[in-house]
Amino acid sequence: MLTSGGHPAIWKVTMQRKLILLLAAPAALLMSATAAAAPAPPVGTFSADLTPIPHDSTADGGSNVTGHAALSLAGRNLTVDLTATGLTPNEPHAMHIHGVLAGANECPPASADVNTGDPIDPVTPQIAGTPDGLISLAEGLPSYGPIDVSFTQTGDTSAASGLVVERFPVANAAGTLSYHRSIKIPIGVAKNLSDLHIVVHGTDLPSDADHSSLSSLFEATLPVACGTIN
Ligand SMILES: [Cu+2]
After folding, report:
1. Cβ atoms of 169 and 24 closer than 8 Å
2. Most buried residue among 95, 101, 102, 161 by CB atoms closer than 10 A?
3. CA 165 to centroid of ligand 1, rounded, Å
């Protein structure tokens, strides 16, 4: 039996099979390569125990902020349950995930209080190199790194909202704060979550006559508690 092209039908079928195999093989390779290049999204539960940032109790009025954060991650979706006590009552407290992604980060040690001059500090004496007993937002940055995520109550949660104090949770009259929100975080933050830290900010300093932690950016952003995310 001959086909119109002069080849036996069996030859034509064999060539078709070879062609299908040739086409299918690279497609299968491509699919497995794509699967290897895109790892499964990060998923898991994490937590952080918040402990006081080292400070001189006279300089900061004797704050003793402690707390706990439970984090549930599914890809870029992060559910945050955070409670903290010992905060300045009735004031908002900025709270962030901090850290250099894929880098070494830590909660600031007492030696971070270098007092080399902080432009947002109108409260404590500016004596360069003389510790003032307070680790400012800027002094803590080399330890805990930049802001990655802002635990705001409404709207944006990026670093851009880091100092929008009005959108952060307010401690109650007893100085306790509880925060619950499901947010979307950058994939780089999600993948590096266990290298990062949670920092809680804001205190009313006794050296400031205005009894509000919002009376200066220095007070509103002063780090008061920090915890490693595990
Ligand atoms: Cu922060």
Report:
1. no
2. 95
3. 11
